[in-house]
Amino acid sequence: MLIRWVTIEDKPAWAELAGTVAELFNSPNMATDKTFHNYMDSKINKFEALAAIDRMSGRCLGVIGFSRTNNRISWFSVQPDQRRKGIGKRLLDTALRHMDNTKDITVVTFTTDHAGGQAARVIYQKAGFIDMGVFVDEQGNKRCIMKRLPTNEKQGASFHYKYPDYDKYSKIENCLCCNNAPAPDFLVDIAELEYSFATAEKIAQGKLFGKCHVLIKNHYVNFEDIPHDDMVGFMSEVQQVGKALHKVTGAVKINYEIHANSGPHIHCHLFPRYLDDDFPSAPIDYRVCEPSPYESEEEFLWFVEQMREELCQR
To answer: What is the pLDDT of residues 152-164, one digit of tens each?
Structure first.
């Protein structure tokens, strides 16, 4: 099963799903209603609707719609023959990532005495939603407001949480790297190479002495889209920086990770690995960055100068 954004091509499948649950929502014309179709268009354009898709058949198994502005779930259904398979939970958990968890998140759903609404209520309850009261909507239906209180869950800056920003900055006209946006104060340039830039930061991810990046100059979001010559040039320079890093740091080996999840512009993370690092037989947790592995500002600047000298010799 694949959880992805709903696209305009998915509208017929979403409408078909709406038709299967229209009676449950007491809205028999939902699938053909113009207002509902406008709602679908709006959610698709804003990246505020997620679909669960069967990978082999392409069938839409469920859809959830939400509002970042109002911090609420606004539409949610799973195909009747696909319930109790964990599909609803995965859709809801993914939607919650894209909302503000420092504020209340709300949903209007079925009351406790609604015969067909218990499955939805259970999913919300397991996600931490609690009943806040019953009211009668404009169509005369009894509805329940449920609320999820703020949590302390840490949210990052990747597409997992801030997809509209990711989509915006993935375009070259908005890319911060390509438009000379000021670099963060903690980022230091090591060297400009033919195809890339090498940089480092004192607040090193993984608390690893010498952790640095190599950023490709031309704008690419996906590694597989890089033309052959640019790819070879970039990877040759990643290797060049890696050799220098290995020598300067005394690391046992260098790990390489190519990313563009937060900043949608291809870059390679270089992680020196040591006998005493914090991740034996495990992947690096990039979120661990304090305290700095550098004993002083002078030691960090020494590392940068040593890297520059090595790269200038090649």
So the answer is: 888 888 999 999 9
Which amino acid makes up residue 246? H
Cα atoms in the 13 Å half-sphere on the side-chain side of 303? 24
Distance between CA atoms of 170 and 160, rounded to whole angstroms? 14
Q: Return the number of other C-beta atoms located less than 10 Å from residue 43's C-beta.
A: 22
Cβ–Cβ under 8 Å, residues 200 and 213: yes
Q: What are the Cα distances from residue 161, in Å, to 58, 128, 166, 251?
A: 25, 19, 9, 34
Q: What is the pLDDT of residues 108-132, one digit of tens each?
A: 999 998 888 888 999 999 999 999 9
- Reply yes or no on whether the pLDDT at 77 is more than 60: yes
Instruction: Read off the tokens for 140.
Output: 């005369």
Spatial distance between the Cα atoms of 299 and 144, rounded to a whole number of angstroms: 60
Q: How far apart are the first and last CA of the chain?
A: 48
Token pair in block for residue 200:
């480092």
Please tell me the pTM assigned to this model: 0.90
Residue the block writes with tokens 């070879």 = 232
Q: What does the pLDDT read at residue 27?
A: 83
Give long-range contacts, CB 8 A cutoff, 24+ apart: 112-116. 112/144, 114/142, 116/24
> Distance (Å, rounded) from C-alpha 170 to C-alpha 207?
29
Domains of the chain: 2-148 (3.40.630.30), 163-312 (3.30.428.10)
Report in angstroms the alpha-carbon separations of 94 from 32, 100, 152.
Answer: 27, 13, 17
> What are the tokens at 128?
């931490």
Residue 314 has a pLDDT of 53
Q: Are 68 and 45 a contacting pair, CB within 8 Å?
A: no
Long-range contacts of 293-296 (CB under 8 A, 24+ apart): 293/204, 293/207, 293/208, 293/209, 293/211, 294/202, 294/204, 294/209
